[in-house]
Amino acid sequence: MSSRKKSRRNDGPAWQCGACGEWNATTVDGSVGRRQSYVEDCQVCCRPSVLTLQWDPESGEYAVGSELE
Ligand SMILES: [Zn+2]
User: Fold this and answer.
1) Rounded CA separation 35/59 (Å)
2) Cα diameter, the chain
3) I want to staple 65 with a disulfide (CB 3.0 to 4.6 A). Which of 11, 16, 22, 52 is the partner?
């Protein structure tokens, strides 16, 4: 009864494309670690950005930074 699962929501942290300014959502694999970075393509302009994710225990979610590759 105190389950607080965010079901049916696949929206991970959002990041903004540095090329076109669009916001994208990324999916975090929590098993990889509390700090991770990887390259993801913008869904709008398809340019790759390097995402840097860091777990923020205070907010309970990942903080994400992005920069153009
Ligand atoms: Zn873009």
Assistant:
1) 15
2) 45
3) 52
pLDDT at 7 over 50: no
For 26, counting Cβ atoms within 10 Å of its Cβ (0-12 exposed, 13-18 middle, 19+ buried), the class is: middle
State the DSSP string of 5-59: --TT-----EEE-TTT--EEE----TTT-SEEEEEEE-TTT--EEEEEEEEETTT
Beta bridge partner(s), residue 15: 24
Residue 16 has pLDDT above 70, yes or no: yes
Q: Which residues have their alpha-adjacent CB atom under 5 A from ion ligand 1?
A: 17, 19-20, 22, 42, 44-45
The pTM of this model reads: 0.77
Measured in Å, residue 2 CA sits from the centre of ligand 1 at 39
